[in-house]
Amino acid sequence: MKILVCIKQVPQKDAPLRLNPEGTWIRDDVSWETNEPDAYALEEALRQKEKHGGEVAVITAGPARSQQVLREALAKGADRAIHLEDDRFAQMDAANTARALAAAIEGENFDLIVTGLQSDDFGAAQTGVLLAEILGIPHATIIIGIEKTDSGLKLKRELEAGHYQHIEMTMPAVLTIQSGINKLRYASLIGIKQAKMKPMRKVAWAEVEGKLSKNVQRIEKLYVPGSQKKTRKIEGPAGEAAKQVVEYLKNEARVL
Amino acid sequence: MADLILVVAEQREGKLNRVSFETIAAAQLIAKETGWAVEVVLPGSGVAALAQELAAKAVGKVYALEAEALAAYTSDAYVYALKAFISEKQPKLVLFPHTYQVRDFAPRLALALDRTLISDATGYKYENGSLRFTRQMFQGKFAADVSFGGDAPWMATVQIGAFRADHSGDQTASGAAAVENVTAAVANTPARVTPHEVFQEAKQTVDLSQAEVIVAVGRGIKEQKNMPLAENLAAALGGEVAASRPICDNGWLPLERQIGSSGQTVAPKLYIALGVSGAIQHIVGMKGARTIVAINKDPEAPIFEIADVAVVGDLFQVVPALTEEVKKSRG
Q1: Is B104 in Cβ contact with A224 (below 8 Å)?
Q2: Are strands B309-312 and B291-296 parallel, antiparallel or unpaired?
Q3: Is there a contact between B192 and A246 if contact means CB atoms under 8 Å apart?
Q4: Of A117, A128, B53, B215, which is least packed with CB atoms within 10 Å of its CB?
Q5: Do A138 and B139 touch (CB under 8 A)?
Q6: What is the predicted pLDDT for the residue at B166?
Q7: How far apart are CA B38 and CA A38, in angstroms?
Q8: What is the per-residue pLDDT for B173?
Q9: Which residue among A170, A220, A253 places its CB closest to the CB of B147?
Q10: Is the pLDDT assigned to residue B203 strictly greater than 70?
Q11: In the predicted structure, residue B170 carries a pLDDT above the cut 50
C-alpha cells in the first residue's frame, strides 16, 4: 500500500501559551511537537506497511520549524517527506490546508491517506474530511481499527459512549485516526541516523497558491475564557491546601 | 436566501439525541435576535414519529427527509441528500449538533456546497448584522470568536451541553409545528461505504453514571505506578476512580472508566480531577458534576474554568495530604 500521513506541528502540551499583541493568535516562541493524534496515524501507517508492504510518505504544511515533525516521522520509519514550507500555511482555514495538501500530492495516487482525528491547536477536526472531498474519494473518521481486505478496508469506527461500528470501504480513502488505536514506537538511534538520508521534498507557496481560495473563516479574537463558576482558588503548602479543600467539601459543598 | 435557520437533527436507532434539542435551543436564541425563522430537518428512514417529537418544540416546521439509503448512516448518502435539501431551502444558517456523526459528514457537506463550517461552537455573537461563533482552541486554553468570510448559508456545529434544551422561558416553549415528509435525493452511483451494526465491546462492569463521588486522573499522574494515589483518595471518599482518554489509551485503567465524549458522561455530587488539563473532550463528560475540585500544577489549566475549587499545586504532595484529611474527617 502506498500511504500518506498528514502531520501537524502544534505547541507542546505543557507549553505556556501567550497571545500576540493583536489578540488574534498565539506568540510563536513556544516549544512545538507532533500533534498527538497524527502520531497515532503515523504509527498505524507504519504498521500497515510492515504487514502489507509499500511505502509511507509524510506531509506537513507550515513554517521552517515544522520540518522537525517530518524528521521525527522519518526517524520512526517513514520513507520520504513533503514539506509545504511557508509561514502563511500556519493559519489557513481547514479547507485551504486541505487544498494545499491536495495540490502538493497531485499525481501521486496514494491508496490510503491517514491523519489524526483533530489537531490540538485549532481542533476543528475537518482537514482530513475536506481532503477526501477535494480528492473525490471516500473517508471515515475516528477510526480505531484498520484491516486491509481483498476489496478494500474493514474499519472500526468509534461512536459516542463506548459504542463502535464496523464499516467496509473502497480504496483509495482518507481516514482520520483516534488516539489509542495502537502503541506508539520510539525512533531508534539508527532510525534517526537514516532519517538524514531520506528524501524531503519542499513545496513552495507559489507552487500551490493557484489552488487556494480566500480563507472563509476568520479568527476575530482569541482570548482566555472567563471562569464559568465562582471558583475558590487554593494555593500554598500541600497540607494547608488539603485542609481547606476538606473544609469546603464539608461546610459549603456538604458532600463529606 | 430565506431568513431561515435550519437545524439538522440527529437520530440513531429510533432515538433523537439530547444535543439535537440543545441545537434547537441555540437556533431559537439566535432567531430571537435576528428575527429569522427556525425549521428542523431530520434525515433517516421511517422517522416520521421522531419528526412529530421535534414538532412539539417551538419551531416553524419539521421536515422528515427520508430515503432507504439514509436508514443506516453513511457520509456519502447524508452529504448527497442534505446538499440537495439545503440548496433548495437556501437557509441563512444551518446548525448541527456536534456529534461523531456530524463530525463525519458536515465538513464535507459544507465544502460540497462551497461553504464553510465552524465546528464545536459554545456560543454566538450577533452584532451589526454579522454572526460570529465562539469555540475553544488549543485544548480549551483559549476561546476564539470566529466569523464567516463568505456568503450564507453559514454553517456551524453546536457543542454538547453548551445550550440548555429544557430551560424555562420562550426557547423551550413548545409548539405544534407541521411535519412535512420529503423524499431525499439519492445518488445512483454504487456505494463506497458499507456500514454494519453498531455494537458495544464488552458488558460494562461499572456504571460510573451512578457514582456519587468520582476521582479522575489525567496526564498529570505521569506514570502508572502513581495510580494508587488516586485509588487511595477514591477509597477514602467511598468513590470510583476514572480517567481522561490518554490514561485509558495507555491501559492504566480500563476503557469503561474513561470520562468524556468517547467514554462515560457523569454527574456525580463530587468530582475530583487530578492532573486533568480539561480538554473539551473530557469536559463534556463531567461538567454536570455538582461540585468540581481540580488539582493541577498549571494555574492556567482549562479545568479550573469549571472548577468550584481550584488547587494550584503539585498533585503528588496535595493528594496524599488530602487523602489523610478526608480519612480524619470521615473518622
Answers
A1: no
A2: parallel
A3: no
A4: B53
A5: no
A6: 61
A7: 39
A8: 56
A9: A220
A10: no
A11: no
* Residue B104 to residue A232, Cβ atoms within 8 A: no
User: Under an 8 A CB cutoff, do B138 and A120 touch?
Assistant: yes
For each of the domains in chain A, give its residue range(s) and CATH number, in order of start.
2-211 (3.40.50.620), 230-256 (no CATH)
| Residue B260 region by backbone torsions, left for phi larger than 0, else alpha for psi between -120 and 50, else beta | left
Beta-carbon-side half-sphere exposure of residue A55 (alpha carbons within 13 Å): 13
Chain A: closest CA distance from residue B243 (Å): 14
Q: Which three cell numbers stand for residue A176?
A: 482520520
Dihedral sign (CA B292, B294, B299, B302): negative
* Least CB–CB distance from B322: residue in A17, A224, A242: A242
Q: Which residue has the cell 482518554?
A: B245
Q: What is the pLDDT of residues B264-320, one digit of tens each?
A: 888 899 999 999 999 888 998 998 899 999 999 999 899 999 999 999 999 999 999
pTM, whole model, 2 decimals? 0.89
Of chain B residues 249-308, which have a CB less than 8 A from chain A? 249, 255-256, 261-265, 269-270, 277, 280, 290-293, 298, 300, 302, 304-308
B312·A233 Cβ contact <8 A: yes
Q: What is the mean pLDDT of residues B3-15?
A: 93
Query: Using one digit for the tens of pLDDT, what is the confidence trace for B132-162?
Result: 999 999 988 899 999 999 899 999 999 988 8
pLDDT over 70 at B171, yes or no: no
